[in-house]
Design brief:
Elements (H helix, E strand, L loop, with lengths): L27 H16 L3 E2 H8 L3 H13 L3 E4 L2 E4 L2 H8 L10 H11 L2 E8 L2 E8 L3 H8 L4 E2 L4 H8 L3 H9 L6 H17 L1 E3 L8 E10 L2 E11 H21 L4
Helix pairs in contact: 2-3, 5-10
GO molecular function: DNA binding; DNA-binding transcription factor activity
Pfam family, one: IclR_C
GO biological process, one term: negative regulation of DNA-templated transcription
Length: 260
């Protein structure tokens, strides 16, 4: 049987305390630069200065200065007064020797989807949110989330648990301390599983989703760090019944891809 992590909360467990850690301070200018880059990346065909300023609810003059700076260093490109994402973000990953998550091909995901018969998703985190990078699904709910690159909670998905578990302890505590009171029980479940999540890189059926679904996910690792996850998603009852088999399948694929 595959060593796995569950979080059903069964058995008498005492309350666990989260070490107090300050949340990393935000910087208004950095937030705005990040917002500009995300807006442009999502636009696919690019945005004008006016459109970007309007989306940010910011003055055109100050937005222009930030955009000029991003173009100057290659993070944005400008053609006919339309801004698109530049090559610098990709180049940084190349310099770091870190392949893009999309090195997992569509064909590889298709094979996994065909074997499991479930929604299959390649996921990564940006800031404190989870995004589906690629997916295969016959379920319109998950297809909509993936195709529109909508943000999902790290604490409400099996993939998110693995990505969160791989962070520095200080950042884990800061994230958990920022959760609303109605997620206190989920925070406690995550803490009970944290050490095993870090050791195994497998998360099975945490039962924390808000939509009646559940999942099994496996960490995709490079040089010992989790850079993404691959997982399957379905109705909680089906995931629970097939959890061991699904974990074995996911681990096999991740190992074949050289990402374990």
């Amino acid at each position: 049987m595959t060593e796995r992590t569950t979080a059903d909360g069964s058995g008498p467990v005492g309350r666990l305390s989260v070490e107090k850690a300050p949340e990393r301070p935000r910087h208004r200018m950095v937030d705005r630069v990040a917002a500009i880059m995300e807006l442009v990346a999502r636009s696919r065909s690019g945005l004008t200065l006016t459109a970007i300023a309007k989306a940010l609810d910011a003055p055109v003059s100050s937005t222009q200065g930030l955009i000029n700076g991003l173009v100057a260093v290659g993070y944005l490109d400008e053609r006919d007064r339309v801004y698109t994402l530049g090559t610098a973000p990709y180049l940084l990953n190349v310099i770091a020797g870190r392949p893009p998550v999309t090195n997992v091909s569509r064909e590889q995901l298709e094979a996994l989807h065909a074997e499991t018969g479930l929604t299959t998703a390649l996921s990564t985190d940006v800031g404190d949110d989870l995004f589906y990078v690629d997916h295969l699904s016959t379920d319109p709910h998950y297809a909509y989330l993936a195709e529109n690159r909508l943000r999902r909670s790290l604490l409400r998905t099996s993939a998110g648990w693995l990505l969160l578990a791989d962070r520095e302890r200080r950042d884990i505590w800061a994230y958990l301390n920022s959760r609303p009171a109605n997620e206190a029980d989920i925070v406690e479940q995550f803490l009970r599983s944290l050490d095993e999540l870090r050791e195994t890189g497998v998360c099975v059926s945490p039962r924390v989703a808000v939509d009646g679904g559940d999942g099994v996910s496996v960490a995709l690792r490079e040089r010992g760090r989790t850079i993404a996850t691959v997982g399957v998603i379905g109705k909680a009852e089906e995931i629970a019944a097939r959890s061991d088999d699904l974990a074995e399948i996911l681990l096999r694929y991740a190992q074949d891809w050289g990402m374990r």
